[in-house]
Specification:
This protein is an alpha/beta fold and 244 residues long. The chain has helices spanning 17-31, 69-78, 95-102, 146-157, 181-201, 206-212, 219-242, and strands at 2-7, 35-40, 81-87, 113-115, 118-120, 131-136, 163-169. The chain has 2 domains: 2-213, Rossmann fold; 217-244. It binds flavin mononucleotide. Flavin mononucleotide binds next to helix 1.
């Protein structure tokens, strides 16, 4: 199985919880025998869609822009499973991820088709691969992922590929903090397990998801720790400036 992951996170390395969880997930996929590839959008030149509709009219299926999206779309088309990974930014995907999705217009035909009572544009000569959505967010409640989840499900309903799993991890910025070291290890091990399950069973089990989404602390503790962290950072920078 050929797994193509698109990472819309602007940060890299261990500081990015999206990248860290994505790597654990892909490690599990590889362990179960899949081939994996990550497309880090932050490293690519993908200009904004200019809305010209050339890819639907003058050169059907081809974008007028000559940038990395050409190669990315070829890989995306050929994948058996898509993983769309994005941190939650203002209750939605990052601009990098949204831009990637806008630029996938050449993969659709312009013609209108009715599907489940609403019009849509059918895929152009390919079957959209099933999708896994992976996202992390700063706030501690899972409810913050609702708008993102709704958006991806709406697109899936319009024919852009079914969603086989959603892996959402709240309170992401606290994961590497020393008090949560053991939980972070468990969460990453469960994320790797999710990758194995995706390849061997085509889904992530409830038990695995429950470990990934375990609570780190109650809301009062979160507010206290979160506010102390930001106040500490503000003070640290102020002290640094004052010492110059
Ligand atoms: C511009 C911006 C918008 C954000 N919006 C949200 C948000 O709507 N909800 C939330 O819980 N966290 C939000 N966050 C926090 C990020 O989701 C969180 O820091 C996450 O760990 C970032 O992913 P990364 O670690 O892969 O970079 C936002 C962060 C930034 C920089």
């Amino acid at each position: 199985m050929n797994v193509v992951a698109v990472n819309g996170g602007p940060r890299k390395g261990k500081i990015s919880k999206t990248a860290t969880m994505l790597e654990a997930l892909l490690d599990g996929c590889r362990h179960a025998g899949a081939n994996t590839e990550v497309i880090n959008l932050r490293e690519k030149e993908v200009r904004a869609c200019n809305g010209c509709y050339t890819c639907w009219t003058k050169t059907p299926g081809k974008c007028v822009q000559d940038d990395d999206m050409k190669e990315i779309l070829e890989k995306y088309r050929r994948a058996d499973l898509h993983i769309l990974a994005t941190p939650l930014y203002f209750w939605g995907p990052t601009a990098l991820m949204k831009n990637f999705i806008d630029r996938s217009m050449p993969l659709s035909h312009p013609f209108f088709l009715e599907k489940d009572g609403l019009l849509t544009h059918p895929p152009r000569d390919y079957t959209p691969a099933p999708k896994v959505i992976l996202s992390v967010c700063g706030f501690p409640e899972l409810d913050h992922f609702e708008p993102l989840s709704h958006w991806f499900h709406f697109m899936a309903g319009r024919g852009l590929g079914s969603i086989v799993a959603e892996i959402y991890r709240p309170a992401s910025e606290f994961l590497p903090a020393p008090p949560f070291r053991q939980q972070y290890e468990e969460i990453l091990a469960a994320t790797r397990q999710a990758g194995i399950e995706l390849i061997t069973r085509g889904k992530v089990t409830k038990e695995t998801l429950a470990v990934i989404q375990q609570d780190l602390m109650d809301k009062a503790a979160y507010i206290k720790m979160g506010n102390a962290y930001f106040q500490g950072e503000i003070d640290r920078w102020e002290a640094k400036r004052a010492s110059k």
